[in-house]
Design brief:
This protein has a single domain, classed as Up-down Bundle (Growth Hormone, Chain: A), CATH 1.20.1250.20. The chain is built from 18 helices and no strands. By secondary structure, it is mainly α. Helix content is 80%, strand content 0%.
């Protein structure tokens, strides 16, 4: 472990504020886009789900593309910071466009408008911004403890932003005129906030020089100056078992989030109070934020991230099963309590994910002497988009298949049953699979063994 300190407190906080920008886009899109499209734009949930899945085909191609570009970029600002800065202007424009579909368009034109703007946002601008932002974890410090701190601070901002958006958006839309006008106005406000936060984050940090990043434990510089080709990068990536585990974890966490974001339907048609979305947002995000505050100290106390994340997710699985039981009992207080318990358990993983990716990137470097940080961190964007796309599309398909009727006072019994399955069971199943994967994610131990081997070889 590198004990040298690279960052001041304001660098860490400034970096973390970048997730305000990411989440004014992500939270608004993931929580509210489906109900905006079905109940305001008048579109079919099943068709929307299909379009989202088609958009993910383009997304899958763009992640490796932008990761490779970042690895090859050389500017005065560094490798990742320019992409993070300029890509968000496109994110801001597209999030407004998605929530400003002209009412005068026919249905086919509305579907085309959504598909084009949604694809440009996810496959282009958000991908470039998010991969660059995540890659900075490996480019501005080599200190593992600082990376964990950055991850915790980052996700404190992320969940705080998500909490605020879920709490105030419904009332904000009403205050701004309601209907299409309210959606458009709220999207513009969030886009401007995101632009300011993203710019602040970019300007708060500096990337380390390449000579320092490419210093290996065996005293050799490695082959960092000779950048691998796209084919070689892909080979290195796919041969890293820890990258693949983290990628699947990312996908499952996004499926979890996407189906949980169908909560607005669950609150409206089962609990009969759409404003309960805010209460559940608090039950999810406040424990997450509290857990993130203590995650760096807990990881430092136990020495490794793996044990902390596995224990945390065991608690999360128990919590989500409690939510299932309370949901069928119809007890909102119990649902909120078990939701909070599950969120506490999930917080250590959220705080250490970026540090774990950095460890996975280090694993490739220690084995091959090749540094592919940008393409390695593409798993954050790829996992978010594939998982979010699959989860949201699946939710749309299941909702349409259940016979959902937009704005109906009473939904069919098949829709009510489906909402129970989507909001209660799918998140619990996703958490259980993540727990199994985390048990196998011993990248820290693998890196320790590789460093010992390199040191031994150097002495010999």
């Amino acid at each position: 472990m590198n004990d040298k300190k690279y960052l001041k407190w304001y660098n860490k906080v400034g970096y973390g504020s970048g997730d305000i920008a990411g989440n004014v886009v992500y939270a608004l899109l993931s929580v509210f886009v489906m109900i905006y499209l079905t109940d305001t734009a008048g579109l079919n949930a099943g068709v929307i789900g299909t379009l989202m899945m088609l958009a993910r085909i383009f997304d899958g191609l763009s992640d490796i593309f932008f990761g490779t570009l970042i690895d090859k970029t050389r500017t005065r600002m560094g490798r990742a910071r320019p992409w993070m800065l300029w890509a968000f202007f496109g994110c801001a424009a597209m999030i407004v466009a998605i929530f400003a579909i002209p009412a005068s368009l026919g249905d086919n034109a509305k579907y085309a408008w959504f598909f084009i703007t949604y694809t440009l946002l996810n496959a282009g601008f958000y991908t470039a911004n998010n991969i660059a932002y995540s890659t900075l974890t490996a480019l501005i410090t080599k200190n593992s403890a600082e990376r964990v701190q950055m991850g915790s601070i980052r996700f404190i901002f992320a969940f705080s932003t998500s909490l605020l958006i879920q709490t105030i958006t419904v009332k904000g839309i009403e205050f701004l005129g309601g209907g299409a006008q309210g959606w458009r106005a709220i999207a513009i406000i969030y886009a401007l906030i995101g632009l300011a936060a993203n710019t602040l984050s970019v300007m708060s940090v500096r990337e380390l020089p390449a000579s320092e990043l490419e210093d290996r434990s065996d005293g050799e510089e490695g082959e960092g100056a000779d950048k691998p080709t796209a084919r070689e990068s892909a080979r290195l990536l796919l041969s890293n078992q820890y990258y693949l585990i983290i990628l699947v974890v990312f996908i499952l966490t996004q499926v979890f989030t996407a189906t949980l974001n169908m909560g607005i339907y669950f609150m409206t048609y089962i609990l009969k109070n759409a404003n309960l979305l805010g209460a559940f947002a608090w039950a999810i995000n406040i424990p997450l934020i509290a857990g993130l505050v203590f995650t760096p100290a807990i990881v430092s106390r136990f020495g490794q991230m793996r044990g902390v994340t596995v224990t945390g997710y065991a608690i999360a699985v128990v919590g989500r099963l409690g939510v299932v039981l309370a949901g069928y009992l119809g007890s909102v207080p119990l649902m909120l309590a078990f939701t909070a318990l599950a969120s506490i358990g999930m917080s250590p993983l959220q705080g250490t994910l970026n540090a774990l990716i950095a460890e996975a990137s280090e694993y490739t470097y220690l084995r091959s002497g090749r540094r592919i940080d940008g393409i390695m961190f593409s798993c954050t964007s790829l996992g978010v988009k594939v998982g979010g796309g699959v989860g949201t599309a699946m939710a749309g398909w299941l909702l349409a298949a259940s016979g959902y009727v937009a704005k109906a006072a009473v939904q069919p019994a098949s829709t009510i049953s489906m909402l129970y399955f989507m909001y209660l069971w799918i998140p619990a199943i996703a958490n259980a699979i993540i727990l199994i994967l985390l048990w196998r994610l011993d990248v820290e131990g693998a890196n320790a063994r590789l460093r010992a081997e390199l040191a031994s070889d150097a002495e010999a």
